Amino acid sequence: MAYIQFQLKKAFKNNIFLITVPLLLIISFIVLGLNATTSRSMSLENQAKGNLAMQNNAISQMEHSLKHYKKNGEAYNLTKQSISDTKKQRKDSQNLLNAFKQQNWQEVYHYQLKAANLAKNIQLKNHNVSNDEKNALTKNVKFFEYLTKHPLPYEDTPPVTGIQFLLDLNQLYLPFLFILVVTFILTQLYTSKYKNKADISSLLPITNNHRYVFDNLIGIIIAGGIFYLLNILIFIVATLIFKTGKLVI
After folding, report:
1. What is the pLDDT of residues 93-151, one digit of tens each?
2. Is 20 exposed, middle or buried (0-12, 13-18, 19+ CB in 10 A)?
3. For residues 204 and 184, what is the distance between their CA atoms, to the nearest angstrom?
4. Which residues does 25 contact at the CB level (< 8 Å), separation at least 6?
């Protein structure tokens, strides 16, 4: 046990450990910050605000154009109908924003599904739309159909809440960075016992077999300890800033 404690102290006091582990944390928090910035601009609520602004602008332009058309003419009647349709969509956007403020997810998904179906029906009439775009529209409709039946709080993408960010980080970034950091630390640990090509650890009162087992055990302890420490710290910070989130969305 004294050998294990000695090697662990040597690893944790090593400059590589003191530099690379905090660096890994900093990179993770940079990713969290970038996710937060992107998430705010791409959130459903901001999309609804953007749609409402566009609808208000479209209604103003069409009402202005209406003055230049002959009353009860074809262009006049089409514009009047477009104004009426856009006002209905504007009302849905306003209701959607109210639902967001109240965190009434059942209502949120109801209006999102309505908008998704409208977008799908409009695009399907366009013969220039590719099959991939059609499939994406259909997938979007099915997604909000599911959420309408299972109104869980919505998780914006890219994720920022504790659980979802941790899952995303472990899937996309952390495995590669973590392996790189642990490789550096363990390489430094295992090679530091060689001086002038001689293994000075062989002078310790411990058999080669025990030393081999202990070295592997130390590697597992260091790798596991760093991994879980990073995950716990990242989860705590993301949760404190953006809440815990849901395991399933």
Report:
1. 999 999 988 989 999 999 999 988 988 888 877 777 788 888 888 898 998 999 898 88
2. buried
3. 25
4. 230, 233, 234
Cα separation, 198 vs 229, whole angstroms = 34
> Helix or strand or coil: residue 198?
strand
Closest CA to 19 of 144, 134, 146, 181: 181
Residue 218 CB neighbour total at 10 angstroms = 21
H-helix or E-strand containing 194? strand 194-195
Residue 247 predicted with pLDDT over 80? no
Amino acid identity for residue 140 in this structure: N
Give me the helix-helix angle, 105-124 and 131-149, nearest 10°: 160
* Backbone conformation region of residue 155, classed left if phi is above 0, alpha if psi is from -120 to 50, else beta: beta
pLDDT tens per residue across span 204-245 = 556 667 767 777 888 888 888 889 999 999 999 999 998 887
> According to DSSP H, which parts of the chain are helical?
2-12, 15-42, 44-66, 74-102, 105-124, 131-149, 162-172, 174-191, 208-242
Query: Is residue 129 a contact partner of residue 225, using CB atoms and an 8 Å limit?
Result: no
Give helix 208-242 / helix 15-42 axis angle, nearest 10°.
30
Query: Which residue in the block uniquely carries the two structure tokens 């209701």?
Result: 95
Q: Which residue has the tokens 């950091």?
A: 181
pTM over 0.90: no
Instruction: With residue 73 as reference, give the H or E element that holds it.
Output: none
* Tokens encoding 150: 């299972």
Residue with tokens 């909000």: 144
